[in-house]
Design brief:
Length: about 280
């Protein structure tokens, strides 16, 4: 599966991934001590939903468009919606912030962002977006070399987002090994790993997670947008693994995912699961 950010910007996977990211970053700002945000696959920072790539599938219409149209939402969802609202004002202004810009909204003087994007053209765009931000450091490196080289960070507190494009069949296994490497070098960090779901039973991903033997309090969150079609290779859901989750995240994520099922899923087909690994 090739999950280039621009083709899926603002879709249900972004809503889930970025909504959970916001909850974690909001928690990190509760303390005065600074934090580091590391992004292994940062993309270009923000996405024009009128672009050819985003317009092709218009996934945002079944994702962020519906979330922004709600008259009111729980606080757990509003944190995310407030940030997106800086860029998304349908129909005049249709931009969607990627994970780096979302993280930037939480950044204080004592915090910093370390962003990595291997794709040459995307990396240059990312650097332009943050060219006037001295607290933001952009890299163009192989993510599987980049993350171990950056850990442990200073300050030794922060969130690491691992969000590969899943172009290779075994990439979830590779991403899980990268996650384990990160934990070995920076055990106290909060890690957020995203992956696509194409099978409702999700047996392969669950098996990989169990074999990884992650820390005992790690959260496995799954959102199912619809039931799979027969012999389909279609994206039907979104999964995230959170290592060292903030203590309120399980309850907050349950509220967020419930809103997604209610608002975004096809009638009678949506579902969510929250498991402690």
């Amino acid at each position: 599966m090739n999950y280039r950010h621009a083709y899926h910007a603002g879709g249900f996977s972004d809503v889930m991934k970025h909504g959970i990211e916001c909850l974690i970053l909001d928690y990190l700002t509760k303390k005065e001590k600074g934090f580091v945000y590391l992004d292994t696959h940062a993309g270009i920072g923000h996405y024009d939903l009128h672009s050819d790539e985003s317009s092709r599938g218009q996934e945002y219409r079944q994702g962020i468009h519906k979330i922004m149209a709600l008259p009111s939402v729980p606080e757990e969802v509003q944190i995310y919606r407030d940030i997106v609202g800086h860029y998304y004002d349908a129909p005049q202004k249709l931009f969607y912030p990627g994970s780096p810009l979302i993280a930037k909204h939480f950044m204080r003087e004592q915090d910093k962002l370390i962003l990595n994007e291997f794709h040459p053209e995307d990396s240059q765009i990312l650097k332009q977006v943050f060219r006037r931000e001295p607290q933001v450091h952009c890299h163009q490196r192989d993510a599987y070399e980049f993350l171990p080289a950056m850990l442990p960070p200073e300050p030794r507190r922060g969130l690491i987002l691992i969000d590969p494009p899943y172009e290779e069949r075994q990439e979830l296994s590779s991403a899980m090994k990268l996650l384990k490497q990160g934990i070995d070098k920076f055990a106290q960090g909060v890690y957020l790993l995203w992956y696509p779901i194409k099978d409702y039973r999700n047996e392969t991903a669950v098996k990989i997670l169990k074999q990884a033997r992650l820390p005992a309090d790690s959260l496995h969150l799954e959102y199912f947008h619809q039931k799979p079609e027969t012999d389909s290779n279609k994206l039907i859901g979104s999964g995230v693994v959170v290592v060292n989750p903030p203590w309120p995240l399980k309850e907050q994520a349950a509220v967020f995912l419930e809103q997604m099922v209610k608002t975004l899923s096809k009638a009678g087909e949506g579902d969510q699961r929250i498991t402690i690994l």
